[in-house]
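### Sample
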Amino acid sequence: MNKAILLKNRPKGRPALDDFEFKEIEKPSPEKGEVLLKTKYVSVDPYLRGRMRDEKSYIEPFQLNEPVESGIIAEVLESNSNDFKKGDYVNGMLQWKQFQTSNGEGLQKVDGSKAPLSAYLGVLGLTGITALLGLKKIGKLEKGETLLVSGASGAVGTVVGQIGKIKGCKVVGIAGTDEKIKTIKEKFHFDEGINYKTTDNMSKAIAEACPNGVDVYFDNVGGEILDAAMANINRKGRIINCGAISLYNETERPTGPRHETTLIKKSVLMQGFTVRDFQEEFGEAVQQLATWLQEDKLTYTETIVEGFDKIPQAFIDLFDGKNKGKMIVKV
């Protein structure tokens, strides 16, 4: 037996379980040049919400009544390919199916003896690469600067903060519970933390935590927290727009403060990106992250949910902040 998870409806606002459909399908057999894959770990990420909209973006939207796809670690069960053998583990953008075939395009072998397999979806995968290359290519972080990170207890945010400390910066993180603030300070060595849910005045809180202002702001949430960070940005500051989870489920486009005068008067750089903008540097980035991991300069946290049937709920739980670090489903 084989099961797939399809996108049944385009969500209006916050996704719901009714927006997904489980379908029993045939277990495929690999043809010449193909491999049969068994899904082992599934990455669920906020950006998938954008692909559920029928609109032009940097990546094609999901089609209704077709399987959702995301980053997946899979085991090669059968191989008719010269590039892969039975027992290999691979990482790739694959569909939410228990079993599927692939011609190998876009698949990368991963070594479970060097790091846990799930790490290749997180700190050694697109998550870690996003953090490193966002800081390197846009943030241009320098020793002694102040780095502010929103979504600081999430998968990308925790890596961003740790790289900031490796680079010799003061790092301040923003998260949504006291427990998460405690974690980013004790486990990930952030200097300060701000619980935005218990803070009445975010601009003032950032000013107190960053008395020398903010040189680089790594933004994972957008919205009012971005506005507060802008109020504290230094001259020639850099704002890295990585995500905007606070806005992903909005049904109407919100309006807020206009930042043009701040950008002009303070010569601030504000740039959005997707990690694939820097694809030519992926290999070097993974090597650097792996080195830091081996040197115990990087650590990571995962929230692992077990069961193929739990994938949609795990995705929905992202929008309630139920994950600590990377959200992964073990199949």
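The two ends are 14 Å apart (CA to CA). This sample (NADP-dependent oxidoreductase) is used throughout the tutorial notebook.
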